[in-house]
Amino acid sequence: MKQYDVIIVGGGIHGAGVLQAAAAAGHSVLLIERAGLASGTSSRSSKLIHGGLRYLESGQFALVRESLRERAIHLRIAAELVELKPFFIPVYHDTRRRPWQLKLGLWMYALLGGFDASTRFGSVPKREWQTLDGLETHGLDAVIRYHDAQTDDALLTQAVVQSAISLGAEIAMPAAFTAAALDDGGVRVTYSQDGSPVQCTARVLVNAAGPWAPQVGGLIQPAVPIPAVDLVQGTHIVLPFAVTAGIYYVESPTDGRAVFVMPWHGATLIGTTETPYQGEPDKVVPLPAEEDYLLAVARHYFPAFRHLGREHITQRFAGLRVLPAASAAAFDRSRETIFSTDREPKPRVLGIFGGKLTGWRAAAAHVLQRISPSLPARPVRAATDQLILRRPT
Ligand SMILES: Cc1cc2nc3c(=O)[nH]c(=O)nc-3n(C[C@H](O)[C@H](O)[C@H](O)COP(=O)(O)OP(=O)(O)OC[C@H]3O[C@@H](n4cnc5c(N)ncnc54)[C@H](O)[C@@H]3O)c2cc1C
C-alpha cells in the first residue's frame, strides 16, 4: 500500500495550492480529483484576483490586506496568467455610494495595499467618457477608476498543479475519494479509479472538496467536525458585444448589489448573483431569473446591450460559494476561509471551507502550518511565493 505524507481530496484552486505547498515543503503528496482540474467552483468564479474593495464596507480589513498582498504576488509570479486591469465605477445621480465615499474606500484600499503603483485611483475626466464602451452617460456624475486583476481561474489552477508536479507531487484523476479511516498513525484512504478501489495511507488528509466538502467530510470514520455552512449560487452570463476599456463595477438597478461587467475572450462576462442553494452541488445550473437579473444590469448601463435577450447569451455558468451558515444576506457574510481539524495540535484531517480564488496561496500556507506538527521534517524544495506559474500549454 502506498504511503504519503499528505493526501488531498479536490482539484480546485485550494487542492492545487495545498498540493504545491506540500510538495514545496518536501512532502510526498497525492491529490485525488474525481472529474477534472478546476471542474467545480474554480472555473466558475468572476475570475478576479482582487483585494475585494467591497469587503471594506463590512470591516473585513485583514482579508483585504491579505488579498492585496496576494494580488501583488500573483502579478509577480503569474504574469502570464494574471493581468492588472482598469476598473470603472460609474456614479449616477441615484447611485448609492457617492464619489467621496468611493474615494475614501479606495484610499483605504491603497493604504492596505502599501500605496504601490497598482493602488493608484482617480476620476476619469468627462472628455474621456466616450472611450468607455458606450457607457450610459445620462445622469452620470462621475466615473471612478482604480485597478484590480483578472485571470483565467481554470488555467491558474492547472498552472499551480503543474508547478506541484514539477516538485514531485502526484495526482489521481479521474478518481473519486470514497472513504477514510482514522487511526493513531494517520489516515487510511480509499478512492475509486477505473472502477476499482485503491487504498493508500497518509499522515494527514486535506479535504479541499469545495461545495462537496461536507459530503467528503461525512465519509471519514470516526466522524470529524464539519462546520455549519450554506451554499450560495452565483451565476455568470456571456454576451456577444465586447467591452474593452476595462472592468465595470456597477450597482444592480434591481437591488443595488455590486455586479461586474468584464471583457472576456472578445465578449462580455457579467456576474454575479447570490441565490441560496439547497440541492446537490453537482446539479447547480443558472436560473432564468438570474439571467434576467444580469441582463437587466447590462441593459441599464450599456445601450449596446439593450436589444439583447436570454436567447443571445452565448455562455452561462453557475458556481457555489461556501459561506458560514447565518441568517444574514449572503452579500454581507464573511468571505474568510474556515479551516477545521479533527484534533489539535496534530490533526489527521483538515477541511477547507469557503475562501477566495485570490487567497489560495495564503490558504495553502496556513494549511501547511496547521498540519506540520503531524508531518515528518523534510528538506524544503522551494518557497511558493518564488515559484513562477506558467500558462499551461
Ligand atoms: C460565483 C462565484 C464567483 C467567485 N468569484 C471570485 C473572484 O472573482 N475572485 C476570488 O478570489 N474568488 C472568487 N470566488 C471564490 C472562489 O471561486 C472559490 O473560493 C474557489 O474557487 C474554491 O475552490 P475550491 O478548491 O475550494 O473548490 P472547487 O473549485 O469547487 O474544487 C473542489 C473539487 O473537489 C472535487 N471533488 C468533490 N468531491 C470529490 C470526491 N469525492 N473525490 C474527488 N474529488 C472530489 C470536485 O470535482 C472539485 O473539482 C467566487 C466564487 C463563486 C461561487
Q: What's the CATH H-level superfamily name of the largest domain?
A: D-Amino Acid Oxidase, subunit A, domain 2
List bound small molecules. flavin-adenine dinucleotide
What is the average of the pLDDT values?
96
Continuous helix count: 7
Largest sheet: 10 strands, mixed
CATH level-two architecture of the largest domain: 2-Layer Sandwich
The poorly predicted ranges are none
What's a concise summary of this model?
By secondary structure, the chain is of the alpha/beta class.
Quickly list its features.
393 residues, alpha/beta, FAD/NAD(P)-binding domain, D-Amino Acid Oxidase, Chain A, domain 2, ten-stranded mixed β-sheet, 7 helices, globular, binds flavin-adenine dinucleotide
